[in-house]
């Protein structure tokens, strides 16, 4: 027993010496385990550009949204951020400049922005197109469920909730948000 404890202490000491970024802890049996520490939380700076511009990560500056030097990924993230921040018309304008208009993520936020502008039929068509390309895109399913709640189609909203649960489980952001949305509407 003493030998096992001594060996654990030596291993733990070596770990502290040679792995300064690891945390050493002992369990009930006296065995050492090494746990990688969580990275420190940093606040990512979100670059905001004036209307009609997109922040290019590659160029590290704001560029006109129609510029050919802007990558689609930057346009997508800018459009998504604009939509979530309530600037729906500008989100649509930016997302329309993405070359791959069949990207389910782009279709999702086109649907989201149009739905938030009260254009439910247009929003639903984008959601359905996104799901025809990627039926497992559960964020689209959550937004589609919210649209159904707004339209009073609770059975269809609950169907999307079941689809989310079937695909990724109930302990996900998408499931919890749609479930909350449905319960609040009832």
Please outline what is shown here.
57% of the residues lie in helices and 9% in strands. With 186 residues, the chain is mainly alpha-helical. The relative contact order is 0.06.
Average pLDDT confidence is 79
Stretches where pLDDT is under 50 for at least 5 consecutive residues are: 1-45
Count of distinct strands: 4
Strand order of the largest sheet: 1-2
The share of residues in extended strands comes to: 5-15%
Q: Please compute the radius of gyration using only Cα atoms.
A: 24 Å
* Helical content band: 55-70%
Global morphology:
elongated
Number of domains: 3
As an assembly, this protein is: single chain
Q: What is the end-to-end distance?
A: 62 Å
Number of helices: 8
Keywords:
two-stranded antiparallel sheet, 8 helices, disordered N terminus, mainly alpha, 186 residues, 4 strands
General description of the model:
The protein has 186 residues and is mostly helical. Helix content is 57%, strand content 9%. It has three domains: 34 residues, no CATH class; 67 residues, no CATH class; 52 residues, no CATH class. A two-stranded antiparallel ribbon has the order 1-2. A hairpin with a 5-residue loop joins strand 1 and strand 2. Helix 4 packs antiparallel against helix 5 and helix 5 runs antiparallel to helix 6. The protein starts with a helix and ends with a helix. 29% of the residues are buried.
Give the topology, please.
Elements: H1 2-18, E1 23-26, E2 32-35, E3 53-56, E4 61-64, H2 72-84, H3 88-95, H4 104-116, H5 120-133, H6 138-150, H7 154-168, H8 173-185
Helix pairs in contact: 2-3, 2-4, 3-4, 4-5, 4-6, 5-6, 6-7, 6-8, 7-8
